[in-house]
Amino acid sequence: MENPMQKIEKAADFLSKNGYIGAKIGIVLGTGLGNLATHILVEKEISYADIPYFPLSTVESHSGKLLLGSVSGKRVIVMKGRFHFYEGYNMEQIVLPIRVMKLLGIETLFLSNAAGCLNLGWKKGDLMLLEDHINLLPSNPLLGKNMNELGPRFPDMSAPYNPTYNALMLDIAKELGIGLRVGVYAAMTGPMLETRAEYRFLQRIGADAIGMSTIPEVIAAVHMGIKCCAISVLTDECNPDHLAPAKLEDILAVAANSEIDLSELVLTWLKKL
Fold first, then answer.
1. pLDDT confidence tier of residue 255, bands split at 50, 70 and 90
2. pLDDT-derived band at 59, boundaries 50, 70, 90
3. How far is CA 214 from CA 20, 30, 60, 71, 79, in A?
4. If exposure means fewest CB atoms within 10 Å of the residue's CB, which of 31, 42, 73, 103 is most exposed?
5. How do 25-29 and 108-117 pair as beta strands?
6. In the predicted model, what is the mean pLDDT of the chain?
7. Would the pTM count as exceeding 0.90?
8. String of b and e for 163-184 (b: at least 16 CB within 10 Å)?
9. Exposed / middle / buried, residue 19 (Cβ in 10 Å: 0-12, 13-18, 19+)
């Protein structure tokens, strides 16, 4: 039976032999944000189902394809769809693509997600740059024997989202006239949305947005020395005193509307890296 490192190496070897080489930037596209990939000059596209040991996306808004191409003059590898704990995958499976991308040469990782808005001063449709996070998932990808080939046993997490990258993103947002909030993202298991009491709890511990992803990938990336930047599209308002039922179709519609500004931000950011 292959150990986790052997699975990562075999998946990376498969992709390398299929031409997935030369990219230094990885991109993870979350719920409702797959259209950002339309700006990429795609050279290669492989279904997750065809990559050794890759899980399959079971969420309809995640297409489940790995792209290789160019955007804003940069060569990139793009995950069009990610994996979640609520799908039944363990942390090793969730972050396997990030570890594979590291072996393929990725040094920078941009991640996007759709999240609920906890900050009462903000509104749905806003974009939030992650400056920190709170992991409320029941596990993390570094539990168990450390993979010394990838990173240290006790990685520092004082700045999981690269301050230089964040400063650049904020400068670009100002130049383009795009509103960009800065805040703390928390992750819970899902797939159900939170109760009013849970929203109050999250607000009290300092979370500005709540989602179901991103943190495992960032932990794995930081462990390997990959620099991260992430933006949440705030798709629904989580005011516990005025809570309306959230519908998936509404969340996807908000994400799609906000993707115009998100795309412009990310494309300019990539150009200036």
1. confident
2. low
3. 23, 9, 18, 22, 12
4. 73
5. parallel
6. 94
7. yes
8. eebbebbeebbeeeeeebbebb
9. exposed
- Give the angle 27-28-30 at the CA atoms, nearest 5°: 145
Report strand pairing: 127-135 vs 108-117: unpaired
Residue spans of the domains in the chain: they are 4-272
Which H or E element spans position 166?
helix 163-176
Alpha-carbon distances, residue 139 vs 94, 156, 219, 250 (angstroms)? 11, 17, 11, 30
177: which 2 tokens? Answer: 């006239």
Pull the structure tokens for residue 123: 């509104």
Would strands 74-80 and 25-29 be described as parallel, antiparallel, or unpaired? parallel
The mean pLDDT of 163-192, rounded to a whole number, is 97
Select from 59, 151, 137, 136 the least CA-distant residue to 98. Answer: 151
Output b/e per residue, 103-138; b: 16+ Cβ within 10 A. bbbbebbbbbbbbbbbbeebebbbbbbbbbbbbbbe
CATH (one of 3.40.50.1580, 1.20.1060.10, 3.40.50.1240, 2.170.190.11) for 4-272: 3.40.50.1580
Distance, CA of 39 to CA of 101 (rounded, Å): 21
